[in-house]
Automatic annotation (TrEMBL):
Annotated protein name in UniProt: Enoyl-CoA delta isomerase 1, mitochondrial
Subunit comment: Homotrimer.
GO molecular function: delta(3)-delta(2)-enoyl-CoA isomerase activity
InterPro entries: ClpP/crotonase-like_dom_sf, Enoyl-CoA_hyd/isom_CS, Enoyl-CoA_hydra/iso
Gene3D superfamilies, A to Z: 2-enoyl-CoA Hydratase, Chain A, domain 1, 6.10.250.170
Pathway noted in the entry: Lipid metabolism; fatty acid beta-oxidation
The species this protein was found in: Branchiostoma lanceolatum
Length: 208
């Protein structure tokens, strides 16, 4: 399975910030449960999963990419990373766990505290992506890599993948409702709503 985007220049802009701003606790819980289920399915997928990152990939977009088995990113101006702290929010523990599994403890600690967004070359240097190529070559490179992965006996690959990811998946599975409730409480704090409001205004201002 290849994750790609139809939006030029954006692999994924992450979660819909407007869903987290001035929403109701009930809607926030439903929103979070949908995200949890999508991620559990992706990270726990038995399929070979590859990200064709042909544009920006902040926050939830970075989570999607990191949750794949292999990442190819376009060189150039695009950025990738978990930038949550810059919005005044905190990356949930399962976002952090996936990043730890991808780039290790030291790089994750720096990346998360700073809310760092990396260029493709920087991302390559810390192991956040596996390959950087010109934009037009992203999809052909993914397809070529997929052929390599498809040559591995499926049962052996799936057992290996499942055992490598089980602890992280089980950690969320065991506390889904608590995590959803925590998200709804956290996101509706006055201070967090204020930060999100300012961030949304800054995105709109950038456009004008
Ligand atoms: C211990 C406690 C832990 C508890 C856990 C609790 C909380 C954690 C909670 C949440 C975790 C969230 C993870 C996320 O994914 S948050 C989302 C982060 N995303 C971003 O910061 C991206 C913001 N967008 C951008 O930087 C740019 O838009 C981008 C670089 C992607 C593209 O730039 P471009 O110039 O091409 O396009 P724009 O003109 O900026 O955008 C077009 C249009 O789209 C709107 N928009 C962009 N991103 C989002 C988004 N994520 N959600 C909603 N809307 C978005 C943008 O405002 C423009 O709208 P409009 O002006 O055309 O109406």
């Amino acid at each position: 399975m290849v994750l790609a985007s139809a939006a030029p220049g954006i692999f994924s802009a992450g979660l819909d910030i407007l869903e987290m701003y001035q929403s109701t606790p009930e809607r926030c819980v439903a929103f979070w449960r949908a995200l949890q289920d999508a991620w559990l399915n992706l990270y726990g997928s038995r399929l070979i999963t590859m990200a064709a990152i042909e544009g920006h990939s902040p926050a939830g977009g970075c989570l999607l990419a990191m949750s794949c088995d292999y990442r190819v990113m376009a060189e150039g101006k695009f950025q990738i990373g978990l930038n949550e702290t810059k919005l005044g929010i905190v990356a949930p523990f399962w976002f952090t766990d996936v990043m730890l599994n991808t780039i290790g403890h030291r790089e994750t600690e720096k990346a998360l505290q700073l809310g760092a967004l990396y260029s493709a070359q920087q991302a390559l240097s810390i192991g956040l992506v596996d390959k950087v190529v010109p934009l037009a070559e992203v999809m052909p490179t993914v397809e070529g890599e997929l052929k390599n992965w498809l040559q591995i006996p499926a049962a052996a690959r799936v057992i290996t993948k499942t055992s490598m990811r089980k602890a992280v998946l089980d950690r969320l599975r065991s506390q889904k409702e608590k995590d959803a409730q925590f998200f709804a409480d956290f996101i509706n704090r006055d201070s967090v709503q204020k930060s999100l409001g300012m961030y949304i205004a800054s995105l709109q201002k950038k456009k004008n």
